Here is the input.
Amino acid sequence: MRSRLRRALHEWAWHRNTDRELLPARTAGVELQNSIRPMIAVARFVAFAAKELHDRPEWRDRIAAETAERGSLVSGPLATAFAQEIRRTAPIVPMLPGRAIADIELEGEKVTAGGRVVLDILGTNTDELSWERADEFDPARFVGVEDYESLTAFIPHGGADVASGHRCPGEKLAIAGMAAAVATLSDPRIAIAGTGLEVNRRRLPTKPASGGRVRSADASASRCPFR
Ligand code: HEM
Here is the structure.
């Protein structure tokens, strides 16, 4: 990890733009930070997964059984469904602000060019007109859903089409990482601490207070079971 970070630092420090000029130090720093920032955001979702798995031992058992049967921590259908329900409900990025680039009309509301538009991400993901039992945490709603991008009210990483718009191109990576983390956290050799899981919804971005703490379920074990 250390050497990879050093390489990223080297890449951005010496990156040249199309005019062969070095980037301003601030831009290079922002780009360096962009190399790790998205995955740090994924870690917040994983902290919410730790909380929800702790509160739902029956889902942990089901996911652990799925992982054992498949012999893989990657891409389990139940683990993926759990990850999708975390993305639907966790209030990490509750809204996305932007500015209109032209005069537009949105559902009867006129917005002039330069005007502020706020996309209500959490409100859309939990809108009772679009979702059955919208307030209920139920990963089963995503079991068998392959084409999640066709769900227009499911926009945790922005809306519309990734190829022609600004929808997050890292969405599939985030889902894959989260599903692997959900499978790992469901392993019976891991214990999820029940303290520090409360969420302050007045913070932005927010997370379970502790970030989700785990330890070996076997108190005498001195090594990570996944080592
Ligand atoms: C918790 C994880 C993540 C969340 C919540 C998230 C969310 C978002 C959102 C809301 C947007 C803006 C969409 C819009 O303007 O309509 C976006 C854009 C973007 N995301 Fe993510 N993202 C995450 C992870 C990632 C990852 C893992 C990557 C890449 C490895 C990534 C790369 C990008 C890029 C490059 C854009 C700019 C797209 C553009 O403007 O065309 N994101 N993301």
Remarks:
- The mean pLDDT is 94.
